[in-house]
Structures are given as C-alpha cells and as structure tokens.
C-alpha cells in the first residue's frame, strides 16, 4: 500500500539525490545543488506556496514524489493549458517522479498515481478533475497515466521542462468518480 506525507526540509538530501538520478534528471531538468532544492521546494514545506509536495512510501520506504496543485493557483500553467483543452473550475494538476532507480519499471508510477487520485477525491471534495500535461516523448509517464485511468483529451505545444524536448505535449484528464448509488 502506498502512503504519502508532506515533504519536509529533512527530506531535501533524499530529494536532491533523486533529482540527480539520470532517469529523473532527463524529464525534470532541475538544478540539483542543495541551494536550488531549498530555493524551489522550501516555500512549499513552509506553506508559502499553494501546491503540495508529497513523498510517496511503499512499505515505509520513500520511493517517489507527487506534486499536487489547483490549476487556478498557477496561472502560468492554467493559461497555456486552457488554450489546448477546456479546464473546468476545480481542476487540479499533478506531477510525479519515481526517485529510487531500483523501483523504476515495476508499475509503481501507475500505483502511485492511482493512490494520489483516491486521496484527492477523499481529501478535496471540490476537486472536479485532474489534468496532466506530459511531454509527448515521455512515453513511460503518459503510459502510467493511461494505466491509472486517465484519458488523453488533447495535444498541443507547451513549454517543456527540459529545453531539449519538443514542445508537443499530450494532455490527460480524469474526472471525479460519480458517487455509488445503491
């Protein structure tokens, strides 16, 4: 079972190590100095950012990170995304990584995404959907989304995280499940 907890400053060395892993660095393209990790993730740990950074654990061991945010809180994401697909009120976005290289390619990305979706529907009753843009070349990422139940709803150009990537993105979405009737 996957569990989550908020990223804390004590986790920065772990996160730094994950960001340095080639399989993470390829898609996240993040500066990996400790100063950069503190600069970019510190505001979230102190509650100064509206989004959440959550460590994912399997059997008590951390293996990944999920970022979750209301799209409305990040106009720099919402506006260009809204030019490709309709973004309803109450839409969230997620981003994710499997940091531990020994856990890559084992289906944990899909499981982590599914677990985060379940948590989202339980914790955020006004969330209407989750929308995720993915660089078209990141096949492992968009396949994990598909396996987790998201469907491709659009395609267009967005600024990639890594400047070596083509700007073509696929956009995935999953809506809040309808309540069970009985």
Automatic annotation (TrEMBL):
Family matches, as InterPro entries: Acyl_CoA_acyltransferase, GNAT_dom
Domain of life: Bacteria
Record's keyword annotation contains Hydrolase: no
Alphabetically ordered keywords of this record: Acyltransferase, Antibiotic resistance, Transferase
Pfam family, one: Acetyltransf_8
Biological process per Gene Ontology, one example term: response to antibiotic
EC primary class: transferase
Acyltransferase is among the record's keywords: yes
Ranges of residues in domain N-acetyltransferase: 2-177
GO MF term set: aminoglycoside 6'-N-acetyltransferase activity
EC numbers: 2.3.1.82
Descriptive protein name: Aminoglycoside N(6')-acetyltransferase type 1
Gene designation per UniProt: aacA4
């Amino acid at each position: 079972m996957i569990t989550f907890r908020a990223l804390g400053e004590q986790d920065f060395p772990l996160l730094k190590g994950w960001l340095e892993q080639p399989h993470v660095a390829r898609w996240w393209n993040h500066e990996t100095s400790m100063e950069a990790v503190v600069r970019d993730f510190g505001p979230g740990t102190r509650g100064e950012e509206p989004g959440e950074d959550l460590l994912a654990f399997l059997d008590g061991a951390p293996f990944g990170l999920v970022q979750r945010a209301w799209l409305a809180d990040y106009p720099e994401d919402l506006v260009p995304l809204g030019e490709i697909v309709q973004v309803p009120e109450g839409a969230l976005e997620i981003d994710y990584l499997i940091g531990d290289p020994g856990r890559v390619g084992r289906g944990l990305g899909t499981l982590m995404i599914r677990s985060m979706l379940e948590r989202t529907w339980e914790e955020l009753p006004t969330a209407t959907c989750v929308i995720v843009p993915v660089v078209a070349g990141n096949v492992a990422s968009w396949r994990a989304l598909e396996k987790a139940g998201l469907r491709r709803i659009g395609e267009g150009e967005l600024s990639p995280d890594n400047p070596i990537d083509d700007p073509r993105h696929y956009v995935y979405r999953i809506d809040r499940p309808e309540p069970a009737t009985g």
